[in-house]
Amino acid sequence: MMSRLRNLFRKNPDRIQYRQEFVADMDRQLNGFVRIGSAIAIFAWLDFAFNTDKKLHPEFPELLYFRLGLTGIAILVFLATFIPQLSRFGALSIKLLIGYVIVATSFFTGRIADDPNYVSGLQIVVMIPIATPVAFRLFLALETISILTFVISVLVHKPNLSTPAAAYSMNNLLISYVIAISFSFMLDRIRFGSFMKTKKIELKNIEIEAQIKRINELKTQQDGDYFLTSQLLHPLALNEAVPSRIRVEFLTEQKKKFQFRQWHSEIGGDISSSNSVILRNKRYVAFMNGDAMGKSIQGAGGALVLGTVFKSFLHRTQNDEMSRFVFPEQWLRDCYEELDHVMISFDGRMLVSAVIGLIDEDSGLLYYINAEHPWIVVLRNGEASFIEEEMTLRKLGMPENEELFRVKTYRLQQGDVIFAGSDGRDDISMGRDEMGNSMINSDETLFLRTIEKANGDLHEIRRQLQERGDITDDLSLIRITYDGTGHEPITKSDLSVIRRYAQNKDYEGAAQELDKLYAENPHDPKIVYELALLNSRLKHFAKAAALGEEYCNYDPSDLGMIYLTSRALKYCANGDKSLLKRAADYGERLILREPMSFHGIVNLSDIYRRLEKKDKAALLFKKAQAFDPENRAVKRLEGLLTGS
């Protein structure tokens, strides 16, 4: 019981913290009472002043002045409500008005305390502040002043309080004071509780508004970051391939759309880029389609890095003569290694799938690498099909990926159209199953059928994919059309005589006849091909190497001729480093396209040995030894490497 009482009178920390705000809130409520309260007060005591008081207490004429004093003060307060400069003092004026009523009533009631009627009036007056929103401290002060004023007035004027009626009136007055103070205390706690609820709601609203403001600021900042990133991505995702026999088209639609100020844009991890490059005096179209891991800004960050490194590599190729003096296979290897090393530096936080390719404008040969990206599609004679059937490389940024590296090739024919694209082309929501789970397309051939139905048009492909369901990921597509004729080794020369020489194993005679035909038709690829083979067989390696390089320039798809050329250059070099370097270049072309070529590995290891690149030679020798440790060529190479 005592603890409850102590809790009742214990200081509330909130009361201390918000005391001024609570008083200000009460004053705001009081302002609503000023005009109507002062208007009532003007007339409240007039009847008593001019009628009742004269009849009941003619001996107390001063009562008139107390009554009229209220009217006068009330008139001033009422008029002040119409003056803007004074209206802000409304709460103070109503407090003064209440104070005057209580003190004046207490004084004149004390003088005539033996009159129960006037004592009853005082009982009513002391209850008035309960109905008005004033703080308990002010109410207690007014009640205390009222009691003191009443007691002093009784002591000064000594009314007769010995009668039973007077004693009864005093008891009622005392009860009125107790009730008024008690009720005021409880109401004050209730009012403060209500104030605190409102205050907490207000504080919560302020907190929520601050959070919303912060969220909006962050959203604006995020959209600003999105916008900046999208602007940075734009110059990296350009189709800069010069139109010629090869035409390149892009379609990119990122999943994340946003608005920054008046600009509408999109952002995501897909990126496409293309340009024209010249390698060893041959024109190529270089292209890249990539898909960086992560959503929105994370994916865009990966695309930004991918696009920056790829474009830098392209510019270096275009502006640096040494960078242009490489074969397509070597260019793709160098590009891949540069991209992969940058991605690996992010410790697995930035993985990118990509297709990177080069197309020879003359021969139509496509060189490409696929790092865990959806397969390239070719549309030929209205029929779409994949040009690859297996995945060899993992995503850029995956460690220990070099061992899987391989350059793939595909010969394009006139009118062929190839498509490279991100997995958004396959990630289509086909609706929901009976359990309510989203059904994602798992049929890779859907894209093939869509290409055929859309007749290869990129926008129609997108429209038809959208008709089949919701595209759940970023979508990017590259469409490349080859309008060249390609190279086919067709000859008009009669080679039947040459074949008869070869059947009789008269290779010298065959070579002499071919030399005659070559003099008549120096640009006939079939003659060049046969003559290169014959000279290699006859160990005329210098001539075989020259003819082999000529043919490889015409038909770079022939791996056999690439091997022959590399081997011929090696044997005719006689220590000439430049010829050995050319031999190594052709040897690398073969290994980059056929990493498991046993003869290619042995040949290139021997070339590196002659170039005194011992580490590379030893590495390739170990591969050859793993294939066939008892092979004579391997044994011979081992002796040369070890000096035994």
From TrEMBL:
The chain crosses the membrane at residues 32-52, 64-83, 89-113, 134-156, 168-187. One of its GO terms (molecular function) is phosphatase activity. TPR repeats lie at residues 598-631. It holds the Pfam family SpoIIE. InterPro entries: Bact_Sigma-Reg, PPM-type-like_dom_sf, PPM-type_phosphatase-like_dom, TPR-like_helical_dom_sf, TPR_rpt. The keyword Transmembrane helix applies. Keywords: Hydrolase, Membrane, TPR repeat, Transmembrane, Transmembrane helix. Residues 266-482 form the PPM-type phosphatase domain. This is Stage II sporulation protein E. It comes from Turneriella parva (strain ATCC BAA-1111 / DSM 21527 / NCTC 11395 / H).
